[in-house]
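Example 9 (inverse folding). The structure is encoded as follows.
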């Protein structure tokens, strides 16, 4: 029978060994998660080498010709790349401001509802659009904003021109359509974290403020929002980190050649360049993905540093 090692001896050898000794069951349960991450996330990262090769499926990673930064030069010197970059930045800014604030405002408004039954009903209904497939949402939008669509005819009553709004290549028509499509789909689902955070705000603070004569609006700005500020900042940092990788499926379903100038993002631009012709260019696609990942990482670290400096709240 194996001799059991005293905890005191383990403590002397290092705190991590003591933690493992006391919680080995949890570490055992964590093994499948580690294997999942390694096999599906870290091992595939070797595919980054495609960004620096003239990759061919038949030749593989090790026999494909090495071209260095040639794929990046092809990507950045493309005729439509500046336009795609501009669209990506503008759409990201709209999503990072209006699109980010919409779930926060929705969660705060939900917290002001007095009827719990009505509150739960509204909250549940707001989740449903998140589970509707993008193809279905895009099809509905195409029908509603077509020349004879219900929304178009409604806008005509207010003096707007009768037109197919998705074919309009004027700034910022497509950006606004894409923004409100995203808000409609994600406002309920995106508010979950804020609703949960608001539920932890002390009721004593709200009651004391009400007794002192504070209105519901004053309590919202003086108590609710300051109490959930750490959660807001955490979600903002995550949103900024992902903002540059904006748009693919919805834009790919909505845009058309006549609106490439206002709807093409780096994702869709790369897709057309890499897979629009007869032969798939995996190297160009990998170069674009690596570029966006680097920019996203820089934005994530930078926004986290600024959040930590000015608000004393950070993600890491």
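The amino acid assigned to each position is listed next.
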């Amino acid at each position: 029978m194996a001799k059991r090692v005293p905890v005191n001896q383990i403590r002397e050898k290092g705190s991590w060994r003591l933690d493992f000794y006391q919680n080995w069951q949890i570490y055992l349960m964590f093994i499948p998660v580690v294997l999942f991450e390694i096999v599906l996330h870290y091992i595939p990262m070797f595919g980054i080498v495609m960004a620096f090769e003239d990759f061919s499926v038949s030749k593989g990673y090790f026999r494909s010709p090495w071209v260095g930064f040639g794929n990046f030069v092809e990507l950045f010197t493309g005729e439509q790349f500046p336009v795609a970059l501009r669209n990506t930045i503008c759409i990201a800014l709209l999503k990072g401001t209006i699109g980010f604030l919409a779930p926060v405002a929705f969660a705060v408004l939900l917290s002001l509802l007095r009827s719990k039954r009505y509150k739960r009903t509204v909250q549940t209904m707001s989740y449903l659009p998140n589970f509707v497939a993008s193809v279905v949402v895009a099809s509905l939008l195409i029908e509603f904003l077509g020349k004879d669509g219900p929304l178009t005819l409604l806008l005509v009553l207010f003096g707007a021109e009768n037109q197919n709004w998705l074919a309009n290549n004027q700034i910022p028509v497509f950006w606004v359509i894409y923004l409100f499509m995203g808000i409609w789909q994600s406002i309920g689902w995106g508010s979950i974290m804020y609703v949960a955070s608001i539920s932890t705000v002390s009721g004593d603070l709200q009651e004391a403020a009400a007794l002192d004569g504070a209105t519901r609006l004053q309590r919202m700005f003086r108590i609710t929002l300051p109490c959930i500020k750490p959660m807001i900042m955490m979600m903002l940092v995550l949103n900024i980190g992902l903002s540059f990788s904006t748009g693919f499926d919805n834009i790919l379903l909505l845009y058309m050649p006549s609106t490439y100038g206002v709807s093409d993002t780096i994702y869709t631009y790369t897709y057309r360049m890499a897979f629009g012709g007869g032969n798939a260019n995996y190297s160009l696609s990998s170069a674009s993905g690596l570029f966006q990942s680097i920019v996203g990482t820089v934005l994530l670290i930078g926004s986290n540093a600024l959040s930590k400096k000015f608000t004393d709240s950070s993600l890491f």
